[in-house]
Amino acid sequence: MARARSTPADDTFTLYDLKIEVVATERPMVCNHQAGAFFELKGENLSLPPGQTFPIYPLAALLPLLPAKQRVTHPHDWMTTDTEIACPDPHCGGRFRIIRTGTSTFRHADVTAVPLPAPRPARPRRRAAVPARTRRGARR
Ligand SMILES: [Zn+2]
Fold first, then answer.
1. Ligand 1 centroid to 91 CA: how many Å?
2. pTM score, two decimals?
3. Residue 64 falls inside a structural domain
4. Which terminus of the chain has a lower count of CB atoms within 10 Å, N or C?
5. Total structural domains in the chain?
6. Which residues fall inside 5 Å of ion ligand 1, going by CB?
7. Distance 105 CA to ligand 1 centre (A)
8. Distance 83 CA to ligand 1 centre (A)
9. Which one, of 96, 98, 85, 93, lies nearest residue 31 by Cα?
10. 51 C-alpha vs ligand 1 centroid, how far in Å?
11. What is the residue-level pLDDT of the chain in tens, covering all 140 positions?
């Protein structure tokens, strides 16, 4: 299970690896994408199978969703349940299925120059509440 938090001693975090696959519908596809074509996303790196291309217009429509799909989302969140995105060309029947294929673990220090917040100091223990009358009596 992917974790949302890390501690300074362990600056690791986990993201889902994604596969984005072209899915055919009953409507013809007019763009240069064929059913079964795909690309994968692992961390910040997008990869295509050797020799395969992917048109930039559906890629532009998919890109804003992918970082959210890489992260743990609430089971009731539509980002969790909805996995198919329509091609942005209104004449194209193509859809793109976003599949969580696994997870990868990264170190915060390897992916950003921004330091983690300093750990919070331990809170002093609270004294037990003592009624005022008892405190006065203790001074005598
Ligand atoms: Zn299309």
1. 8
2. 0.78
3. yes
4. C
5. 1
6. 31, 87, 89, 92, 94
7. 33
8. 17
9. 93
10. 19
11. 454 554 567 899 999 999 999 999 999 999 999 999 999 999 999 999 999 999 999 999 999 999 999 999 999 999 999 999 999 999 999 999 999 999 999 999 999 999 998 888 887 777 766 665 655 555 54
